[in-house]
Amino acid sequence: MGIRRLGYVGLDVTDIDAWTELLGRTLGVGVTADKIGSQEVLLAELDEFRYRLALYPAAEDVPRQIGWIVDSPAELDRLTRRLEEAGYPVADGTPEEAELRGATRLRWFTDPGGYRVELAVGEAKVRSAPARPADGGRGITGLGHLVLAGPALAELRDLYETVLEFRLTDYRAPGLYFYRCNRTHHSIALARADSPSIHHLELEHESLDDVGRSYDRALADEVPISISLGRHMNDKAISFYVRNPSGFHLEIGCGGIEVGDDWVPHDFGTSDVWGHHHTAANPFAGPTS
């Protein structure tokens, strides 16, 4: 497969201070200030790479880009041809954009929801490991997955499954699909909604104790916990969710399973083994949830 993993997500955000407080105080994530041209950006230090989450000060809270790491220049060229044949114009990123992402090559296109999707070759390691809170454990180890929702579900499914060659892992009625690009259960899930949005980003943690410590800090800091602690039925991850300053969810989780080539896609029915109680209506609730 040409795409190796989810590399990074960029967000336009209206409240940089609130994001910095959530990442630093509650989740133990440092941020580094940088610039791309005259545009300021804060880079969240989730792992040893330069960043996985970029925050751009803006007048509106909207996703800015979704970045996927591609195996090689040859695979980037091959995927570019597939995209163009499917009707997606592909453009090169600027040298400044490639440098910020630590990429040797960078291309992008616009998905059916209107979001900029980037394909990057290369990643830049800038630290042996990020600093973490003194309460023990590695804490966050990286960016796990994202869930995209929108009205163009069929088109998004065709893009990721047919054009970009992701593999369907499982699904749940009435319209929630989980896709993988490596052995991790899923790197992206796609769902139907009235308007395009990111439902959540998942921040991967080393252990259940790390998730628990983040949960304790969220309670102490009075961060809005939007979905309670629980275990998912399909990937078996244990997690809870917080409402971030841009209005969508961050999932704080660990323990998701890996799957092999012999995995058979199926409807996994009930959404959770236990827990994951929503403070608001679940937009993906199906008849069996």
UniProtKB/TrEMBL annotation:
Source taxon at top rank: Bacteria
UniProt KW keywords: Aromatic hydrocarbons catabolism, Dioxygenase, Iron, Metal-binding, Oxidoreductase
Gene3D superfamilies found in the cross-reference section: 2,3-Dihydroxybiphenyl 1,2-Dioxygenase, domain 1
InterPro entries hit by this protein: Glyas_Bleomycin-R_OHBP_Dase, Glyas_Fos-R_dOase_dom, VOC_core, Xdiol_ring_cleave_dOase_1/2
N-terminal signal peptide: none
Keyword Oxidoreductase: yes
Cofactor needs: Fe(2+)
Stretches assigned to the VOC domain: 5-122, 142-255
Tagged with keyword Metal-binding: yes
SUPFAM superfamilies with a match to the protein in the record: Glyoxalase/Bleomycin resistance protein/Dihydroxybiphenyl dioxygenase
Pfam family, one: Glyoxalase
Family from the record: Belongs to the extradiol ring-cleavage dioxygenase family.
The name this protein goes by in its record: VOC family protein
Organism of provenance: Pseudonocardia ailaonensis
